[in-house]
Design a protein that fits this description.
This protein is an alpha/beta fold and 219 residues long. It has helices at residues 10-21, 33-39, 41-49, 58-63, 77-84, 88-91, 120-127, 164-176, 191-208, and strands at residues 2-6, 25-30, 54-57, 70-73, 95-98, 103-104, 111-112, 132-136, 156-161, 181-186. Strand 6 (103-104) and strand 7 form a beta hairpin. The longest helix has 18 residues, at 191-208. Bound molecules: NADP nicotinamide-adenine-dinucleotide phosphate. Residues 7-12, 30-31, 36, 74-77, 79, 83, 99-101, 103, 138, 141-142 line the site of NADP nicotinamide-adenine-dinucleotide phosphate (NAP).
Length: 219
Amino acid sequence: MKIVILGTGPVCQVLAPAFLALGHQVVVGTRDPGATMEVNLGFRRLTARHPALELAGFRDAVAAADRAGLVVNAISGPACLDALAPLAGSLAGHVVVDVSSPYDWSGEDAVLDPVNTDSLGEAIQRALPGAFVVKTLNTLAAEVMPDPDVAGQDHTVFVSGDDSAAKARVGDLLQSLGWRDVLDLGGIRTARATEMMLRMWIDTSQALGTHLFGFKIVR
Ligand SMILES: NC(=O)c1ccc[n+]([C@@H]2O[C@H](COP(=O)([O-])OP(=O)(O)OC[C@H]3O[C@@H](n4cnc5c(N)ncnc54)[C@H](OP(=O)(O)O)[C@@H]3O)[C@@H](O)[C@H]2O)c1
């Protein structure tokens, strides 16, 4: 299928090659393709290794998306609502896989915003009323997202979203990446829970001295 990834950072740089390896067509969206190829060395190296990767402005990338495929939101958390809202019309009818974190790192420590009574996943769903937003993979470091086995043991990936068919499509993709424990938490409101796990993720990462871990729900 065709997968559009909005964002050119570390998440895109691990997901894009994994999707290509599975035989998917991948289009990446960015603010300014020329500037990205000039300043984003990681992304430039990626395109050298994967010439099939297509790069376009956010609007053109979304215009190229296929309703039978997926659009991944891998834009910086504090920036993604402003970046996505103008694309609401084009994203209507599309499944949007939201991996973003509502973390603001501009102060001394990371602060979640929104939190408790709202989540970025819900805010994105409100900003894109015609899209089917599915929050997932946000409790993991980028390197672990397409390769759960890198954490050494079986662990859990969560999905939150209001549309069952959209969650099923995302679940199929996760399974094709090797995820065996895909836990459907419920509606997009449950993105509050997984977004709030990020404080736990940061402190666990510091305690373990690695990003290569995951959370396991034992039942
Ligand atoms: N890195 C991880 O391990 C990890 C783990 C879990 C969740 N996440 C979440 O996944 C998302 C992507 O993370 P990342 O680490 O790959 O990259 P990131 O540095 O958080 O975001 C990079 C992307 O955000 C875009 N961006 C930044 N400021 C923008 C603005 N003002 N307007 C529009 N676009 C803007 C950049 O656009 P350009 O391409 O134009 O520069 C770039 O494509 C984030 O929401 C992050 O919180 C990351």
